[in-house]
Write a structure and sequence with these properties.
The longest helix is centred in the first third of the chain and has 20 residues. The protein is of the alpha/beta class. The strands form 3 sheets. It has a 7-stranded mixed β-sheet. Strands 2-1-3-4-5 form a 5-stranded parallel β-sheet, sandwiched between helices. The chain has a two-stranded antiparallel ribbon with strand order 11-12. The protein starts with 17 loop residues before the first helix and ends in a 12-residue tail after the last strand. Helices cover about 40% and strands about 15% of the residues. It contains 14 helices and 14 strands.
Length: about 425
């Protein structure tokens, strides 16, 4: 159920080419650190502590540019905030500097970019890569180099390889399918509802077919009754046949999985014919993207999605972080991939303050031994981060959001929800 596993059928969004990327972010490789000394007296510049370099491996151009840049911007904002507060004070005020590595749409390029960042740029920590297929190759190179890497990818296999330097922040993919069923059931019951009959609509990609069948089995175990399971070929131009089948059934809610454009088309068509019942996204991608809410607006009301991080967690500093991201990057909310990397940036800040050295091995050992309980470093589900022996954040759980007026609101589980599910 990995929103970050490459799907060839997805229609690209947010594509930008390399020239445009360089126009937008050309100063960022060293700009954050350099900005602190521009215009400063010569003596002050000479006395400044060396910058601490962080490597960011994301798809910054190409079909996954939107998600890659969201991730990058989350890390960027963390670095800007840290530097504005005096940098790493235990290291003489050393500033953090991001060295970006664009892996475009190529796992092999993710590996080569990582080798360059570790061997030539001498970064002390890495962040990446959104898509699990890129993270698999990049993290292997990070492990060889002995440089700790933070990831916002879901794939279970990432933490089953015995790596010492890999740290996975979000909940695992295997947790997402069960959460689609159990969270919806619990949220509905908390609202006094007891839906039973459901339909499942999924694209016919082999991976999503498997996901749909697994969720159907899980739903049966929790007392739900499936009326039908319908597969379609991705790239829909007309959803009327699917919608008519759902509409004519007695389904009280629907599970949906597929590329973002398809989920948008199916949802819009259902709403246009007056079908206002709950829709539950199960794959993490389609119903969790910013485009879903921006395009559908109020037609997205009552649609649920499963993810790993929410802009509206009831924790300290969350409101300020969200408002700053909206203002800084002209978005309607801070998306989950950005929030996860913002958190990761502050985790590195805390590690550097304690080990007092730009030493990847010491940073790695601190990460493995520490429970992070102070925001912003702790701002994952549960407001605590602790990595186990495999490198996974054991306190992370999936979250369920419900869309309302073009914005996703965290509604389950109860310990992280911002509001009750409203089942619009």
């Amino acid at each position: 159920m990995d929103r970050k596993v490459d799907r060839s059928e997805r229609v690209p969004r947010g594509r930008i080419d390399r020239r445009e990327f360089l126009r937008r972010t050309g100063a960022l490789a060293g700009g954050v650190a350099a900005a602190s000394v521009l215009g400063a007296p010569r003596a002050a510049r000479a006395a400044a502590a060396p910058a601490v370099k962080l490597g960011a491996v994301f798809p910054l151009t190409g079909p996954w540019a939107e998600e890659g840049n969201n991730s990058y911007h989350g890390l960027q904002m963390a670095v800007e905030h840290i530097n504005a507060q005096g940098g790493i004070q235990a290291m003489g005020g050393a500033k953090l500097e991001i060295v970006p590595g664009d892996c475009q749409a190529d796992p092999a390029l993710a590996a080569s970019v990582t080798r360059r960042l570790t061997s030539l740029d001498k970064v002390v920590a890495l962040f990446g890569c959104y898509l699990s297929s890129y993270t698999l190759t990049s993290s292997t190179e990070a492990e060889k180099a002995g440089v700790p890497m933070f990831s916002n990818s879901f794939l279970d296999d990432l933490t089953s390889r015995g790596y010492k330097y890999f740290f996975q922040l979000p909940a695992k993919a295997s947790m997402m399918g069960t959460a689609s069923v159990t969270y919806f059931k619990e949220a509905a019951e908390a609202a006094g509802l007891k839906p039973k009959l459901f339909a499942t609509v999924s694209d016919d990609n082999a991976n999503t077919q498997k996901q749909a069948r697994v969720i159907s089995e899980i739903a049966g175990k929790y007392g739900f009754e499936q009326l039908f399971l319908e597969f379609y070929t991705g790239g829909l131009t007309d959803a009327s046949a699917l919608v008519n089948k759902v509409r004519s059934s007695k389904a009280e809610f629907m599970f949906i999985n597929g590329p973002t454009p398809d989920t948008i088309l199916i949802t819009r068509t259902l709403r246009n014919v007056g079908w206002k019942k709950p829709i539950v996204g199960t794959g993490g991608g389609g119903t969790m993207t910013r485009a879903f809410g921006e395009i559908l607006k109020q037609a997205a009301d009552g649609v649920f999605g499963i993810g790993a991080w929410g802009w509206d967690f009831p924790y300290p500093k969350m409101k300020e972080i969200n408002e700053e991201f909206i203002k800084r990057f002209h978005q309607t909310f801070i998306p989950q991939e950005a929030g996860e990397m913002y958190c990761a940036g502050w985790i590195v800040k805390q590690a550097l303050e304690n080990v007092k050295a730009a030493d990847p091995e010491k940073i790695r050992n601190y990460l493995a031994a520490t429970t992070f309980t102070d925001p912003p470093a702790s701002l994952m589900p549960g407001n605590v981060v602790k990595f186990d022996a495999t490198g996974w954040n054991v306190h992370s759980v999936p979250i369920m959001v419900e869309w309302k007026d073009g914005i996703p609101h965290t509604v389950w589980p109860s310990q992280v929800r911002a509001m009750q599910a409203f089942f619009a």
